[in-house]
Amino acid sequence: MANPPFLFLFLLLNLAAAARRAGADGSDPCAGRRIHIRHLPPRFNTDLLRHCGADAFPLTDPSAAATSAPPCESLANHGLGPRTHPRSRSWYRTDPRLLEPFFHRRILERGCLADDPARADAVFVPYYAALDALPYVLDPALLDASARHGAELAAFLARDQPRILSRRHGHDHFLVVSGSAWDYAQPPDTEPRLWGTTSLLRLPELANVTFLTVESRIWPWQEHAIPHPTSFHPATLPHLRAWLARARRSRRATLMLFTGGVSRPSRPNIRGSILAECANRTDACAVVDCSGGKCSHDPGRYMRAMLGAKFCLEPPGDTPTRRSTFDAIIAGCVPVFFEDLAARRQYGWHLPPARFDEFSVHIPKESVVFGGVGIAETLEAVPEAEVRRMRKRVLEMAPRVLYRRHGSAAELREAGKDAVDLAVDGVLRRIRRRTRAQEEGRPESIYTMEDDSLEM
Fold first, then answer.
1. DSSP summary character for residue 72
2. What confidence tens digit (pLDDT) does each residue in 435-456 have?
């Protein structure tokens, strides 16, 4: 029989530990929020970071090497990249394709992590998918094998401790992919294979896993969009407040700004119409040429212009969404959208769809391209008081779409949730809904589109 005093002391210690874990009101602050980080062999994540030299599979396309940061330097600061200048405390030359290792680092910092997957509400798979895809999209010899992207991961998850995956048929698993879902959704039987895409999202073994991507497809039951990473990653609350104050008081002499490639399209489209109008309305429109990746690792090239503009034009490019949208929000430049897929139907966890009219302007692209509607004329008609209200709302949204620096100060974490926090909250809600439908025998409800219009 155990020694009674020792048993009593043991019980007291356990009760004290339980009290520390509980909230002030006695509730469990981790209830419904426990995440298990799946252990993966290094070949699925950290080993991929070694392939950053030009003689391996570079993080940047060799054809764009002249305008890109050196690949290995982009790995600095856990994927945030090198600082824009030595005295910078919040600005980095961030390569958006390194969102996966950065997100992994932030998940490791979270509380409510569970060592035992059976006690977890969600399972995070720290797979660096975009980096693992590079051989398939950059090496012509592997183009025909791009349908196999992710197959080794799927086989590992099914083989190693298979009960973790089978317990909820993968519905409680999630991972992050640095890129558009369209880049990973090529049908596996496509012939010939399309350059630059893989079939990761088409693997049947991963069909129930939630993918966090910077752009989702039209039917996002499998993935959900999270903000494109910008170059602004504050580590303290004073740094965040100082930047927002600068954006708030900035003198905005330019009516509208376009930041992007300036090559004229061969067919009529919204980007061509914008460039044509800006050429004719130099009094109202400014253009920052980002052709050839000039702006990719140089935020100073466009952020100063955004601070001086009232409206930032956000037309779709190769895909509907743009990183520029989030740069504009952080700069307090009211975004102008030309189709709903550009943001309203993408980022519901971070930018509530019901509030878009409070902080953005929508001009249908068809009315501009084929209807003769002038963008500058439309924006000039917006009352100045309304512009100020929209700018105020934009800057209120800014903390929700930025990725604060890892290891940031407690006061900044407590001040509000950033893009990572809101993404994790959203995926936990999605997983709870799906697993509840499983437990209640309602399989038809598992893939129901959830309402993202959540009040802030």
1. G
2. 988 888 888 777 776 655 454 4
